[in-house]
Amino acid sequence: MEGNAGGNKRRRVYSVEAKKVAQSAFTRNYVNYLIPALTKIKNQNTTTTSSDFKNVKYEVDMAMAFSAEGFAWSHGLKLKLLQRDEDEAPTITTEKASSNPSLKTSSDEDEKMKSELSSLRKLIPGGEEIVDEEMVTELESYISCLEMQVNVLQCLLSLS
């Protein structure tokens, strides 16, 4: 206790749990991207238009994509948003995934699995390019990021 004569020194404690670190990094990146983007939208117009809502949705989605870099779904989401931004045309369809010859078998279980994977591919941005072995990991990260996004948006809403 003698070495602590100057008072209580506080040390910053970092979580060693990887999931907590990833969540805090996501939240920090998400807020750092979204707040300036929303402020810019707010400052551009004095009246609210349907275009403003589209811009807000675009920025919310883009914040999600930039905050979760390293996942196939975030890359797919970015591409979808940038493509929509360029020409408002629909993006890649999931037909490519459903016509994968390696998934075709005559077994009922395999057909059911193929159908379920096809359904998952439609839910995840860029899912048509995710290999089957990575689908569960990508889906888990996507759901986790969606939950964090909802939590951040609820906090921002409660502050306003």
TrEMBL record:
<dbReference type="InterPro" id="IPR059002">
    <property type="entry name" value="IBH1_N"/>
</dbReference>
<keyword id="KW-0805">Transcription regulation</keyword>
<feature type="region of interest" description="Disordered">
    <location>
        <begin position="88"/>
        <end position="118"/>
    </location>
</feature>
<protein>
    <recommendedName>
        <fullName>IBH1-like N-terminal domain-containing protein</fullName>
    </recommendedName>
</protein>
<feature type="domain" description="IBH1-like N-terminal">
    <location>
        <begin position="23"/>
        <end position="84"/>
    </location>
</feature>
<keyword id="KW-0539">Nucleus</keyword>
<dbReference type="InterPro" id="IPR044660">
    <property type="entry name" value="IBH1-like"/>
</dbReference>
<dbReference type="GO" id="GO:0005634">
    <property type="term" value="C:nucleus"/>
</dbReference>
<feature type="compositionally biased region" description="Polar residues">
    <location>
        <begin position="91"/>
        <end position="105"/>
    </location>
</feature>
<dbReference type="InterPro" id="IPR044549">
    <property type="entry name" value="bHLH_AtIBH1-like"/>
</dbReference>
<dbReference type="GO" id="GO:0006355">
    <property type="term" value="P:regulation of DNA-templated transcription"/>
</dbReference>
<dbReference type="Pfam" id="PF26576">
    <property type="entry name" value="IBH1_N"/>
</dbReference>
<keyword id="KW-0804">Transcription</keyword>
